[in-house]
Amino acid sequence: MIIAGQRIDFGFCTGSKALKHRGLPMYALMNASEEELYVNMSAAGSRVMAPFSLRQIRIRILWPLPLPKGSGPSQVVYEEWLRVDAAYTRVQMGMAVARVFYNFVEKHRTSLATYRDYPWSLRLDAFYRVWLLGLERVENNVFVADLKYVKYYPNEQEL
């Protein structure tokens, strides 16, 4: 039985109330040690793949494009296979999604960086701008990354 709509959420368990349970920045998932993530991530040690009984999943990244409606695809779709097992924790899954995002950036950084005034422009600081909010199961073995792009942080001067 395929159960779409199942979700794995990511967020901080420490810090300000505004940040708790509202995603994690990709730079933290890429650069922080696994031990540091276990300390700061909500439900970090939860075995998030146990309910799914899957050995391999596809992580799908949907990246919006600034094209007028009706003029072709409105997003870039990037998918990558990932081996998993029932013992995968939330931390391990978050780190794996960050690696998939890194591969996406490497593949598309030149083509998606050309849109200067576009809110989802793939800038050099994309790892600081993109936050992983969760993974949504949309097909049997396909999980779509729920991403938030922060173009400007509070009190940041326009670049």
Description of the molecule:
This protein has 159 residues and is α+β, with helices and mostly antiparallel strands. Helices cover 25% and strands 25% of the residues. Strands 1, 2, 3, 4, 5 and 6 form a 6-stranded mixed β-sheet that branches. The radius of gyration is 16 Å and the shape is globular.
Architecture blueprint of SSEs:
Layout: E1 7-9, E2 24-25, H1 26-31, H2 34-40, E3 56-64, E4 75-83, H3 90-112, H4 126-129, E5 130-137, E6 142-149
Parallel strand pairs: 3-6
Antiparallel strand pairs: 1-5, 2-5, 3-4, 5-6
Secondary-structure element string: EEHHEEHHEE
**Shape by Cα distribution:** globular
Structural class: alpha+beta
Helix content: 25-40%
Oligomer description: single chain
Summarize this structure briefly.
The chain has 159 residues and is of the alpha+beta class.
Features:
159 residues, alpha+beta, 4 helices, 6 strands, globular
